[in-house]
Structures are given as C-alpha cells and as structure tokens.
Specification:
The longest helix has 34 residues. The protein has one domain. The two termini are 19 Å apart. With 484 residues, the protein is mostly helical. Helix 3 runs antiparallel to helix 10. Helices cover 82% and strands 0% of the residues.
C-alpha cells in the first residue's frame, strides 16, 4: 500500500487544512455574519443542487474509473474519454430547458414553507452543472493516480473562497444577493482550474469514433446515474426536507452538527481518492487476492483512525456548540452523535463500495441505493415532525446501519471475503470504553479548556491502546515513516 500511504498522507493533510478552514466558516463566520435563516437558505440550495448533480453528471465520473484502465492503447482511451466527456453537457441542456419552461412552478413548490427560497431557485441548477463537470475532470486526473492537486481544489478551494466571501460580506457590506452570486461564480472558477489540471495530467484528443463497447459504457453510466441519484438522496434529502417541514433556520443548526460529525470520515475521504482506481485495476485484472487485501486492510485502518475522530468530535461537541451565539446550535449535539455513528459504521465497510461499483455485479448498488433512499425518505417524513432535526439524524443512522450489514453479507456471498477482524473489533471496543469513560467526566472548566484537555487525554490513551495492541501495522509503519 505504498502509493496509498504516500498520497493518502498528502490527502489527509489537504483535507485537514480544508476542514480547519471549513470549521472556521461553519462554526464561527457563518453564524456571526449570516442570520440563521440566510445560512439555512444557503445550505438548502447547495444540498438540493447535490441532489440534481448526479443526473447532470450521468454517472460519467464513476464510468471513467470503471473502464479507463480496461483499455490497452492510447487510441482506445481517447475514444472512450471523447465519448463520455460530452454526456453531461447533453443532459444539462435537456434539464436546463425543462427548468426554464417550468421555473415558476418549481420555485413555487419549493418555497411553500419558506417563501425566500423562490428568489434563489436558479442557484440549484447552475451549481449542479459546475459540480457535475468538476467531478468528471477530477476523476480524469485520479485515474492517472494524480489525486492531490484535484483534492486541494475539491476540498480547500471552496472553503477558502467561502472564507474570503464571508470576509467581504462583513468588511465591505456585501449584500446577501451579491454573496450568493459570488458563491456560484466560485464553483465555475474551480471547474476551470480543474479542467486545466486534468488536461496536464492526460491531454484529451477528441476522437469522433465511439469505443467498441459503447453499449456497455452507456448501460453502466445509466445504472451508476440511478445509484448515485439515490445515494445523493441518502446524503442530502434531510437538508432538503427540513425546510419543507420546519423553519429554514433549523437547516442551519442541522448543517453545523453535520459538519462536526463529518470529521469522522476525514481519513476515508483521503484514502478513497486513491483506493477507488486501485480497486478498479485489481478487479479488471481479476486479482482476487489484492481485492480481498484492500477490502480488509482499508476497513481496519479506517475504523482505527475514524474511531479517534469520533471520540474527539463527540466528547467536545457540547462544549464547542456552547461557544456559538444562537442557542439553537447548542441543541444539536444528539445530531452529531447519530451522524458520527453512521460515519463510523460506514468505515467498517472499507473499500467495499468501490468493489461493488467496479465489479460485474455493480447493478446491485442501484438496488441498495434505491432501498436506502426510500427508507430514509420515509423515516424523515415520520420522524422530522416528531423529533425535529434529531429525527432526521436518527433516520440516517438507522438506514446506514442496516444497509452496511446487508452489504457486508452480500459481498461475503459474492467474493467470499469480509472486512471484519479481531483488531477491528478491538478498535471499536476501545472507542466505546473511552467514550463512556470521558462522557461522565465534567472538568467544570471553560469550553475551550475542556476541549483542549479532553482532546489531549483521550488522544494519548487511544494512541497508547493502538500501539500496545498493534491494532494496525499499516498505520504504525506510517507513523514511524513520518517520524523519521
């Protein structure tokens, strides 16, 4: 896993910087410079654009990962890339035309509970197009095993750009409307930079001939499109549904809690950038031994590292939210626990998702995604009116937990392999014990002192356990290499 360790280390650094900037934006500047209603509106618009993005992208980003390494010549690769690169544009023109014709009806339907949405419905489509094409060109670089620069654009650029916008909003008295327009412009600037980077990694030469397996490519793209659409529903349907059932400011409180919980998957977001192409190559080469090795080792490493993040996030969330100006944010600690548990459970699946999406039985990912999307939508409709944003988070936890168990069983049946091990179990036990122990400790200090002291002590104990019980040889070797 040398190449994984090298690029994952860089990606962890990039994502760490991105989350630090994002933390300032989400936990400090958004609540200070925007009202809860304005912040909730921004969250709703971006979340809804994420729901539309898979349709615009037409599954092309995953299609590139799946098929690119299967071609043996440059000519075949160029034909393939030429064919798939125009698909999102074709879909965008169709969806955009429908949007223009029915704009009033769409904006009215979305703004029944919160009328302010009607003035900014256009943002949903425009951002979706930019995001879809960014993912296409980002994957273009990733299949060349060049993920670091693109990852910086994906993770750091939007957060840094947003930081500058929030500063302009405060110091130059920027209006909220101008803020939204500038935010949308940033997505297209990022796309332009990604196109330049991708073309440097692998210059595209347009070929007018389709590849010989164009039918398989389109079939795969449509399947991934449907699966990705359902997957987006699972991720963002809560942020879409909350403003339809509650005041839009509740979306802001929910978004802050979600951001804190998302820290648990930081190591996964770094590792998946490079793991996905490696899994695709191993599957295309029928290298069963390598696939099984990547499966088990990735699950263990992700659980060990994410377990540490889980402890830091949940043991400090109450103290952290007490620093925010609006008391509504302080009532979202249960959301953090539910979502971070869902993230930790997902880590147990390792690169299993990549194995499914790059295998001959990839169609099952559509079935899983549709069932999950249906389940989380039903639970949201039942639990948000009863429990508010806590209900939305609980719906996600239940659906994710059940689906991961089913997926592990399915892969065991298909490839006779599973991600579970005694060391993974020991890591989960260690997380549970430390969480229970520190949950009942009250330092009676200021929130900042509580965060620093708790983080230091729990980190020292957790790393001591990891080292003493040798929970992950890969991580211990990586630490030794960094320390030299």
């Amino acid at each position: 896993m040398g190449i994984i360790a090298k690029q994952t280390s860089l990606n962890v650094l990039i994502i760490g910087i991105a989350f630090a900037i994002g933390g300032l934006n989400t936990l400090v500047f958004y609540p200070l410079f925007l009202s809860a209603e304005e912040y909730g509106l921004v969250v709703f618009l971006l979340a809804t654009s994420n729901l539309l993005m898979p349709l615009i992208g037409f599954g092309v980003h995953q299609t590139i990962i799946r098929f690119f390494s299967a071609y043996n010549t440059k000519e075949e690769q160029q034909r393939f890339m030429s064919s798939v690169i125009l698909l999102p544009l074709f879909i965008a023109l169709i969806v955009g035309g429908i949007g223009v014709l029915f704009y009033h009806s769409i904006s009215t339907a979305l703004s029944i509970q919160n009328p302010v949405i009607a003035n900014y419905t256009w943002v949903i489509f425009v951002v979706a197009v930019a995001t879809a094409y960014f993912e296409v060109f980002y994957v273009w670089a990733r299949v060349q095993l060049q993920s670091v620069a693109g990852n910086a654009l994906k993770e750091i650029f939007p957060r840094l750009y947003l930081f500058l916008l929030l500063m302009a909003l405060y110091f130059f008295d920027l209006s909220f409307h101008d803020f939204v327009v500038a935010l949308v412009s940033g997505y297209y600037l990022r796309l332009l930079l990604m196109i330049v980077l991708a073309n440097r990694c692998y210059p595209l030469r347009i070929r007018l001939h389709f590849p010989s397996n164009i039918r398989s490519i389109l079939t795969y793209s449509i399947t991934i499109l449907l699966a990705a659409s359902a997957g987006s529903l699972i991720i963002d349907i809560d942020k879409f549904m909350i403003p339809q059932l509650e005041e839009i400011k509740q979306t802001a409180f929910y978004a802050v809690a979600i951001f804190a919980a998302t820290l648990v998957e930081v190591p996964a977001r770094a590792m998946w950038q490079i793991l996905n192409p490696l899994v695709a190559t191993a599957v295309n080469d029928n290298n069963t031994k390598e696939v099984n090795s990547l499966y088990r080792r990735s699950a263990l490493n992700l659980v060990v590292v994410s377990g540490w993040f889980f402890l830091l996030v949940n043991l400090n969330s109450e103290a952290l939210f007490s620093l925010l100006p609006n008391v509504g944010y302080q009532k979202a600690t249960l959301v953090v626990l539910y979502i971070s548990l869902a993230k930790l459970i997902t880590m147990m699946f390792g690169c299993g998702g990549a194995i499914i999406s790059n295998s001959s039985f990839y169609q099952i990912s559509l079935v899983f995604s549709i069932i999950m999307a249906f389940g989380v939508s039903i639970l949201n409709m039942k639990w948000i009116p009863l429990y508010g944003i806590d209900g939305a988070a609980l719906a996600t936890l239940v659906v994710v937990g059940v689906s991961i168990v089913i997926k592990i069983i399915y892969l065991q049946f298909k490839i006779k392999a599973h991600p579970l091990s005694w060391n993974l179990f020991k890591a989960l036990v260690a997380v549970g014990i430390l969480y229970t122990l520190f949950q009942y400790i009250d330092w009676t200090f200021s929130p900042l002192v509580h965060i620093v002291l708790t983080s230091a002590l729990v980190s020292a104990l957790y790393f001591l356990i990891v080292k003493q019980f040798k929970l992950s040889d890969d991580l211990l070797r990586l630490v030794k290499r960094i320390g030299k």
